[in-house]
Amino acid sequence: MADIKSQANPLFLTEDEIRQGIELLFYAYRDFTSDPDEILAAYGYGRAHHRVLHFVNRSPGMTVTQLLAILRITKQSLARVLGALIEQGLVRQDRGARDRRQRLLYLTAEGEALERRVSAPQRDRVARAYREAGAEAVAGYRKVLAGLIDERDREGVLKAIERR
Amino acid sequence: MADIKSQANPLFLTEDEIRQGIELLFYAYRDFTSDPDEILAAYGYGRAHHRVLHFVNRSPGMTVTQLLAILRITKQSLARVLGALIEQGLVRQDRGARDRRQRLLYLTAEGEALERRVSAPQRDRVARAYREAGAEAVAGYRKVLAGLIDERDREGVLKAIERR
DNA sequence: ATTTTATGTCAGCCATATTGACTTATTTCC
DNA sequence: GGAAATAAGTCAATATGGCTGACATAAAAT
Asked: pLDDT by residue (tens digit) across B27-81?
């Protein structure tokens, strides 16, 4: 039916097809992160702050350990970023009720406002790409990206993403 | 036919669907870059070196200006990385024949060998994800990622990626 | 009671990026 | 032919976001 060469054939993947898939991911990620980066720079924050705002907003009450596992950075690295956000009243910490060692993380109203402002163009970008590509393409996008995640924690990540 | 809620409906995108698309990209990119990072660390190189090796390998004879446009970094940032690769015999520079101001970039045999070694697990990861997702999903993946690229240079990027 | 876990903190280091200023060689344009 | 623009390189200073190692405290688990 379709031109064989132009189709991604699952039984015969050329090195070139793979390379294209790699480069597309590079370019998409490059531009996908550029919007928040620009906005945050004006506030004196960076990409690392955005990631914290995003995931705390997404899972209010998450622990520091959970956040570290998601970001895959050391607690010393997180400390500087998280400390700044707490100090400036964008993130709040509560002791865990069940486990009082834990510090549960929440965005303050101000933190939520900044998160929304910073992620707005990023959401718009994804929404536009989704609309233009169509529902079927979006399903494929999700399927392939999920397959790129390390297998050992793929299930957990997908569960976390889809939870609600 | 299918459950409406589980489908990405192009006419009614919920904020949650968008957020999931954002997070999937974050996780996929995080793991996608982890393989080369680990290998390169053993050689005393970093992610920036890998990007140079990748794109010079992909487009032998490209100019410094072209590389800067792709990476979206300053020439001072590139200088350190590119300088190290040249110094250690992984990248070679030739004067442009048409424009002698240009320095055309090529990988040496050694550079090609390292590029292959470093990108191998990354290629394997993408190949596996492609095979498991199937041809239709791959087409969707490509469509959405292309839509995430800045519109002003989307056409140029796609042309560059698909050229061969 | 001991060990493990969750979190925090100090200190030092490295990689990657930035801005700004300036140089050299070459091409392009008038 | 001369001025302006372009391609590339370089020096200096700075910021950001990571890292390792060492150590401390509180609370939970064994």
From this structure: 999 999 999 998 998 888 999 999 999 999 999 999 999 999 999 999 999 999 9
Point out the residue among B21, B126, B149 whose CB comes nearest to the CB of A130. Answer: B21
C1' of nucleotide D12: residue with nearest CA = B76
Distance separating alpha carbons of residues B141 and B137, to the nearest angstrom: 6
Q: Do A161 and B23 touch (CB under 8 A)?
A: yes
Residue B6 has pLDDT above 60, yes or no: no
List chain A domain ranges: 12-133
Query: Which CATH code fits A12-133?
Result: 1.10.10.10
**Nearest nt to the B48 alpha carbon by C1':** C16
Using alpha carbons only, what angle is made at residue B135 by residues B133 and B141, rounded to the nearest 5 degrees? 70
Domain covering B16-133 assigned CATH 3.40.50.300 in the classification:
no
Q: Which residue, among B18, B48, B55, has the nearest Cα to B33 in the 3D structure?
A: B48
- How close A64 comes to chain B (CA, Å)? 18
Q: What nucleotides of chain C have any atom within 7 angstroms of a protein Cβ?
A: 5-12, 15-21, 25-28
Q: How far, rounded to the nearest angstrom, does the alpha carbon of residue A88 sit from its chain's CA centroid?
A: 23
Q: pLDDT tens digits for A76-114? A: 999 999 999 999 999 999 999 999 999 999 999 999 999
CA A104 to chain centre: 20
